[in-house]
């Protein structure tokens, strides 16, 4: 009779021996790649240096052709299209690689024979500087205006990267980003072999690869305010409301509520301070009384709410996003959320604190006597007599328990903000509400210190120029001439049509077809 314990012991020994042989021979083991960033930060911004080392350890001798160390930025979107026609329904996707920085210094550190020896640890340093702008060729599709193209060539912030490894001091905060849109940055390492296929097509096969994602919030400037039409359905900068003396009583007058786009909310890409990002909005009120005895109504609370709008598309957009188009175009989508910012009591603003003007002509004072406060235009019921004006300053601060990104527009994704101001009125038991919907931007600076374009320079020891040197250099005489042929290289200046370039030399741009992850696949543009 066979002893089952002996058979079990023999099987276990054989398995252990096979595992030992596998470890000794390196069979079934992968090349280990470790990406280390020196002094890592929770957030990087414009002109920051991302410096570190890549360590590679191979279990067996591995021959390779290239080791690529790159800093890559990508955007990915998908739109669910629900229509009555089954052939049109489904998911459309788009993928855009808008940034690709390569550290060529790794080629000088290749081991002899371009072979990774078994058990030998190889270390390659890398250095990247986050650029201020993207290359013009990244936005190669048609745009309605130069303003749209310039907006598309700004670096978008890290967006919707929910599964990124957060830093030790970083909390996972709600960023109002739907799963349909994401923008990611990271250091990518790839070990590959290169061979030529049919028609001299270059084919790369990966031996090993690894990526380490980082959070990037670029520095952005405040953009000019939006031009808003009177009949705009998305924004409202002026309201008029008839005020009555009481229930079923005569009209007391007309109240006008007006405001302009407030200054941008200035946030910091990284800050050690717990002070929230702030701004303020000024609301102008005008009361046109129906008779000489009527006084301005009593004011209640002034509430401020922020609407966060995310636009995304599966095709490159030629203009700025629009809510109406996003709802009608099956290749576009929109996601919005609204949060309360503050509520202030305005009951102290009694009628004696309003400024009285005896006529419209009296309000048009000389600028030397002006207080700088704008006076709203008369209401449609104004009779040319006395009226009252006051101004309310509404502070705006972003909650610290939410994650916000600057306003931006990329080829596929946009983030916009809208400020809603609600004024409650109280007049002899009658309660009413007037509201304004204003566009507002969120801009970003580097941090607590001053922003300096020299801080990200890869040239060590370079001293910044003084203001006098910059002025003198500006007025230096210069000559212009046609460059020598040796310096023209691959310039496109004199070409009437774009050159035909091999596929592997093309700039980072849209993939013509989105990655096939199920659903319908459509061209990116």
TrEMBL record:
Protein name as annotated: Arrestin-like N-terminal domain-containing protein
InterPro entries associated with the record: Arrestin-like_C (IPR014752), Arrestin-like_N (IPR011021), Bul1-like (IPR039634), Bul1_C (IPR022794)
Transmembrane segments: none
Basic and acidic residues composition bias: residue spans: 358-367
UniProt domain Bul1 C-terminal: residue ranges: 342-442
Source organism: Cercospora kikuchii
Start and end residues of each stretch annotated as Disordered: 356-375
Superkingdom, natural source: Eukaryota
Residue intervals of the Arrestin-like N-terminal domain: 34-144
């Amino acid at each position: 009779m066979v002893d089952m314990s002996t058979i079990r012991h023999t099987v276990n020994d054989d398995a252990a021996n096979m595992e030992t042989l596998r470890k000794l021979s390196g069979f079934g083991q992968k090349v280990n790649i470790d990406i280390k960033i020196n002094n890592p930060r929770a957030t990087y911004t414009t002109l920051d240096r991302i410096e570190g080392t890549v360590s590679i350890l191979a279990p067996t001798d591995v021959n390779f052709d290239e080791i690529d160390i790159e800093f890559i930025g990508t955007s990915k979107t998908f739109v669910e299209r629900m229509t009555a026609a089954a052939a049109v329904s489904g998911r459309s996707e788009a993928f855009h690689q808008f940034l690709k920085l390569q550290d060529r210094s790794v080629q000088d550190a290749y081991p002899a024979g371009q072979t990774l020896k078994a058990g030998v640890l190889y270390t390659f340093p890398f250095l990247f500087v986050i650029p201020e702008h993207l290359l013009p060729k990244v936005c190669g599709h048609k745009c309605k205006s130069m303003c749209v193209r310039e907006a598309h060539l700004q670096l978008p912030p890290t967006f919707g990267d929910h599964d990124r490894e957060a830093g030790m001091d970083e909390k996972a905060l709600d960023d109002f980003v739907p799963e349909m849109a994401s923008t990611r940055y990271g250091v990518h390492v790839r070990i590959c072999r290169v061979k030529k296929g049919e028609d001299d097509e270059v084919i790369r096969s990966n031996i090993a690869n690894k990526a380490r994602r980082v959070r990037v919030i670029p520095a952005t400037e405040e953009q000019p305010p939006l031009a808003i039409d009177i009949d705009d359905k998305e924004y409202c900068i002026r309201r008029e409301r008839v005020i009555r003396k009481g229930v079923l009583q005569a009209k007391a007058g007309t109240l006008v509520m007006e405001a302009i786009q407030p200054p941008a909310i200035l946030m910091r890409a990284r800050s050690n301070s717990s002070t929230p990002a702030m701004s303020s909005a000024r609301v102008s009120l005008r009361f046109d009384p129906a008779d000489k005895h009527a006084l301005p109504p009593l004011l209640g609370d002034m509430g401020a709410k922020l609407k966060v709008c995310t636009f995304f598309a599966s095709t490159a957009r030629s203009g700025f996003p629009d809510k109406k188009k996003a709802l009608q175009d099956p290749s576009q989508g929109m996601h919005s959320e609204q949060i309360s910012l503050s509520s202030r009591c305005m009951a102290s603003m009694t009628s004696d604190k309003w400024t009285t003007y005896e006529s419209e002509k009296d309000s048009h004072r000389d600028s030397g006597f002006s207080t700088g406060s704008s006076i709203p235009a008369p209401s449609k019921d104004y009779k040319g007599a006395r009226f009252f004006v006051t101004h309310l300053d509404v502070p705006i601060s972003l909650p610290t328990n939410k994650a916000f990104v600057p306003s931006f527009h990329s080829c596929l994704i946009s983030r916009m903000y809208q400020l809603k101001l609600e004024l409650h009125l109280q007049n002899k038991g009658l309660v009413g509400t007037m509201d304004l919907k204003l566009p507002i931007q969120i801009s970003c600076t580097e941090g607590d210190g001053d922003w300096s374009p020299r801080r990200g320079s890869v040239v060590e020891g370079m001293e910044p120029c003084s203001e006098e040197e910059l002025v003198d250099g500006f007025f230096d005489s210069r000559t212009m001439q046609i460059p020598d042929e040796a310096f023209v290289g691959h310039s496109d200046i004199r070409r009437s049509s774009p050159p035909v370039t091999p596929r592997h030399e093309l700039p980072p741009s849209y993939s013509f077809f989105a990655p096939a992850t199920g659903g319908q696949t459509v061209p990116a543009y």
